[in-house]
Amino acid sequence: MADQEQPLSAAQRSRIRRLSQQAEPEPGDVAGELNVVPYLDIITNVMMFVLASVTVAFVASIDTTPPSIGGNKVRADVSSKALNLSAWITAGGVSLKKSDGNIATGCENLGSGVTVPCEGPAYDAQNVIAPNWTAAMTTLRGCAKKLKNARPEFKEETQVTIAASPGIEYRQVIDVMDALRTDGEEDLFPEVHFGVAK
Amino acid sequence: VSSVRPQPAKKAQASVVRYKAALRKSIRRNAKDPEIDFLNITAMLDLMTIILVFLLKSMAASSASIPQSKDLSLPGSFMTSEAAQDGVVVVISKSQILVGDDPSPIVTLPSREQLAQSGVDAKFKRSGPNDLYIVPLANALSHARDTDKAIRMAKGLDPSTSEAIIVADSTTPYRLLIEVLFTAGQSEFGKYHLMVLSGRKR
Fold first, then answer.
1. What is the mean predicted confidence (pLDDT) over B175-195?
2. Is the pLDDT of residue A1 over 60?
3. Closest approach of chain B CAs to the CA of A149, in angstroms?
4. What is the largest CA-CA distance in chain B?
5. Measured between CA atoms, how close is A198 to chain B, in angstroms?
6. SS (H, E, C) chain B
C-alpha cells in the first residue's frame, strides 16, 4: 500500500510527458500526400500555351448542291408562273433575274441595268468590308423580300440560283447568299444553288 | 575481501501500474482531433487531367478546329447553324487544294489573276483551260468516295452519293470554287457543306 501511494518520480513524469506528445508529421508526409506543386506549375504553363495557340472559331455550314451549267437543272421543278429567282454577281453589283426577265435598277420594274449597283472593291486590303458593299447587301435583302412578297404564290419559293463573274471572291458570294437567305425575321430563299455561265 | 560494491540509494518511484495509468491519462489529455490543414486535390487533379484530354480530343476531332492562317481564312456569315460533321473535307487555300486528312497538296494553285481568268493550270484539266474538271482532284475525290461509300453502307446511309465539306479561303475566286464543286459533282458528291465563320452581326 505504501508503494501505491508513492508519487511519480521526476524521471517518470518526464517520460510520460515525452511519450504523450503527438508527433508532428514531416513536411510532405501528411496523410501520404504527394507534393503536387511542381506538377501544377507545369500544367498551368502547358494550359497557357495551349490556350494561346488554339484559336476557337465557331463555324457553320451552308448546304448546297453541285453547280449546273447554263441552267437550273438541280433545282426542283417550279412552274412557269414561279418567281424562279437568279442572282448574278459582277464587279458592278448584283443583278437579279426572275422568270419574266431582268429586274432593273431600283428593284421596281423589269428592264436593263444592274439591280443593286455597287462600284469599288467590296473589301479593303485589311479585309474590312466596304460601306458601299454593306449598303448594297441591305438593298439586296430588301429587294429579295419585296420580290418574295409580290405575289402569294411567290411566298412558297425557297430556291435561288447564284452565279458570279470568275474573279468575284468567295466572301462576296457568301454575303449575297446571306442577303438572299433571310432578312433576320423570315426566311427568303434559304435553298441556294450555284450556276455557271455557258 | 568483499567485491560487492555498495548500491546507490534507489530513488523512490511509483509503481508500474500507477505509471501506466498516468501515461494513459496524459495521452488522452494531449490527444486532439487531426486538424485538416491541407486540401487533398489529387482526386480533383485526376479529374481535371481527364477532362482536359477529352476536351482536346473533341476539339481536334470537330470541324471547329479548322486552322485559321494567312493562307486560309474563312468568310464570315450570319449563319448560326451547327456545322456539318460528316463528309469528305476539301480545303481550298490561297496556294493549294487538299483533300481529306492528306497533308500533301492535290493541286498547287497559280497566281490569283490566273485563277480569276481560267482557274487552275490547264495541265490539270481534262480538256483545256476552259474545262471545269480538275483531273488530280477528281482522282483524289474518287478514292475518298470509295472509302466514304463503304462507310455510308456500314452506317446504313444512302451510298449512292457522298457529301463534301468545302473549306475555302474567303478570297477564293468564283471560277476556282466552281471548278472544285463541279469536279466534286462529277465524282458522285451530291451535297456540299460550305464552311463559314458564324455569328457575324448584321
1. 91
2. no
3. 22
4. 135
5. 11
6. CCCCCCCCCCCCCCCHHHHHHHHHHHHHHHCCCCCCCCCCCHHHHHHHHHHHHHHHHHHHHCHHHCCCCCCCCCCECCCCCCCCCCCEEEEECCCEEEECCCCCCCEECCCHHHHHHHCCCHHHECCCCCCCCEHHHHHHHHHHHHHHHHHHHHHCCCCCCEEEEEEECCCCEHHHHHHHHHHHHHCCEEEEEEEEECCCCC
**Strand-strand pairing, A93-98 and A116-117:** antiparallel
Distance from CA of A85 to the nearest CA of B (A): 20
* pLDDT tens-place string over residues B149-177: 999 899 888 888 899 999 999 999 999 99
What is the residue type of A194?
F
- How many degrees, rounded to 5, is the angle at CA A29 between CA A24 and CA A31? 95
**Dihedral pair phi/psi, residue B149, rounded to 5°:** -60, -45
Decide if B66 and A57 are in contact by the 8 Å CB cutoff. yes
- Pick among B180, B196, B197 to test the A interface (most A CBs inside 10 A): B196
Q: Are A85 and A147 in contact (CB under 8 A)?
A: yes
Query: Taking CA atoms, what residue in A is nearest to B66?
Result: A57
pLDDT the model gives residue B131: 87
pLDDT for residue A25 is more than 70: no
Comparing CA positions, the residue from A155, A171, A173 lying closest to residue A163 is A173
- When pLDDT is cut at 50, 70 and 90, the band that residue B67 belongs to is low
Q: Is this model's pTM higher than 0.90 or not?
A: no
ipTM: 0.71
Residue that the C-alpha cell 506538377 belongs to = A39
Asked if the Cβ–Cβ distance from B49 to A43 is below 8 Å, we say: yes
Closest CB to B178 among A59, A67, A174 = A67
The tens digit of pLDDT for each residue in A27-85 reads 555 555 667 778 878 888 887 887 777 666 677 888 888 887 655 544 555 555 678 88
Contact flag B13-A8 (C-beta cutoff 8 Å)? yes
